[in-house]
Design a protein that fits this description.
The chain has 312 residues and is of the alpha/beta class. It is built from twelve helices and eleven strands. It folds into two domains: 129 residues, Rossmann fold, CATH 3.40.50.2000; 151 residues, Glycogen Phosphorylase B (Rossmann fold, 3-Layer(aba) Sandwich).
Length: 312
C-alpha cells in the first residue's frame, strides 16, 4: 500500500488517525508513506507506517514523481489533496485500487465529495469511512519519545509559521516570555531551520540566555522530546501545535487567518486552547493577519494560567 502525504510536520500528525485506520484495515499489507524524509521518526512512532518513501515538493505542491520501484502497489491512497495532480501521480503507478476524493478533473476516480471547511483530521477519516474502513479522528496520540528533553518543564514559545500571515508579532511573544520569567518559570524559544533570525529577535527582546534558545531547527527526536516534556507550548497554527496535541502537552494555539475548526486542536480537550477572533483571511499573506493581531499577550497569559498540568 502506497500512501501519499508529501507535506509537513503538522500535516503528517493530522493524518495519523487516517494512517492508523489503513493499518488496521489492511494488516497484511506493507504500508509505505510518501512523505519528506525528515519525518521518518514520527511516521514510525505512529505505529502505522512500515517504510517511508522520501517525497517532497515546494509549499503544498504535489511531487513531480515518486521513486517507486517494483510492481504496482495493490492499493494507493491519496491523503495529499483533492486532486487532480495527486490523483494522476498515483494512478500513473497502476495501482489495483485508488482511494481518493472525487474530482471532476479525474472522472475515473470514485470517492466522496471534498468539503473545503472540514477539519483536516475529520476529512481524511471520512474519506476512508467512505471506502468501508473504521477511522477515528481522535486516534492521534503518539508515544512519549525516549530521547531526553533539553529543557524539561519549560514553556516553549514558537514564533515561526509557514507564512507571515500566521506569525504573531515577536514583541507580543517577548511580553509573554517576560511575564512568565518574572513568575520564576523557564521559557525557551524554538524555530525551524530557516527561522534563526526570528528566534534571535525574540530571544534578544525577551533577554533569554543562550541555553534557552533553540534556533535553526532541533533534530526531530530532540524537538519531539522538548515538546513532550514541556509545561506548555505557545505557537501559531503550525506543526509544533499538532505535536503538542500528539504528546498531550498543554498548549495555546494562536489562530489566524485560518479558523481552529479547520486545523485547530480538539475543541473538547481542556489541555489545549485555541485563541481565535476571526474572520478568516489569506493564509499565504505577507503580513500578520488582522485576526491574529486581535490576540493580546494578556489573553495568552490568561489561557496559559487556565491550562492543566501536563500528563505524566
Amino acid at each position: 500500500m502506497l500512501v501519499l502525504r508529501a507535506l509537513g510536520l503538522g500535516d503528517l500528525l493530522a493524518g495519523v488517525p487516517a494512517l492508523r485506520a489503513l493499518r488496521r484495515g489492511f494488516p497484511g499489507h506493507e504500508v509505505v508513506l510518501a512523505a519528506p524524509a525528515g519525518l521518518a521518526p514520527l511516521a514510525r512512532a505512529s505505529g502505522a507506517v512500515d517504510r517511508l518513501l522520501p517525497a517532497a515538493a515546494p509549499g503544498r505542491a504535489v511531487p513531480a514523481a515518486l521513486d517507486w520501484t517494483g510492481p504496482p502497489p495493490d492499493i494507493a491512497v491519496d491523503l495529499h489533496g483533492n486532486g487532480p495532480p495527486s490523483h494522476r501521480l498515483l494512478a500513473d503507478l497502476g495501482p489495483g485500487r485508488l482511494f481518493a476524493f472525487a474530482h471532476p478533473g479525474t472522472p475515473g476516480v470514485e470517492g466522496p465529495r471534498w468539503y473545503a471547511d472540514e477539519h483536516e483530521r475529520d476529512r481524511w477519516c471520512r474519506l476512508l469511512r467512505w471506502y468501508g474502513l473504521d477511522a477515528d479522528p481522535a486516534d492521534l496520540r503518539l508515544p512519549r519519545p525516549t530521547a531526553p528533553s533539553p529543557a524539561p518543564g519549560a514553556v516553549v514559545l514558537h514564533p515561526g509559521a509557514g507564512s507571515p500571515a500566521r506569525r504573531w508579532p515577536v514583541d507580543r511573544f517577548a511580553a509573554v516570555a517576560a511575564a512568565l520569567r518574572a513568575r520564576g518559570g523557564r521559557v525557551v524559544v524554538t524555530g525551524g531551520a530557516d527561522e534563526s533570525g526570528l528566534v534571535a529577535r525574540l530571544a534578544e527582546r525577551a533577554a533569554l540566555p543562550g541555553t534557552d534558545v533553540f534556533g535553526g531547527g532541533l533534530p526531530l527526536d530532540r524537538f519531539s522530546a522538548l515538546v513532550a516534556h514541556a509545561r506548555a507550548v505557545v505557537s501559531g497554527d503550525t506543526g509544533i501545535a499538532h505535536l503538542a496535541v500528539a504528546h498531550a502537552t498543554p498548549s495555546v494555539t494562536l489562530c489566524g487567518p485560518v479558523a481552529p475548526g479547520r486545523w485547530g486542536p480538539p475543541p473538547d480537550d481542556p489541555r489545549h486552547r485555541a485563541l481565535w477572533h476571526g474572520p478568516e483571511g489569506d493564509p499565504h499573506g505577507r503580513r500578520p493577519d488582522p485576526a491574529l493581531l486581535r490576540i493580546t499577550a494578556a489573553e495568552v497569559l490568561d489561557a496559559l494560567d487556565a491550562l492543566p498540568e501536563p500528563s505524566s
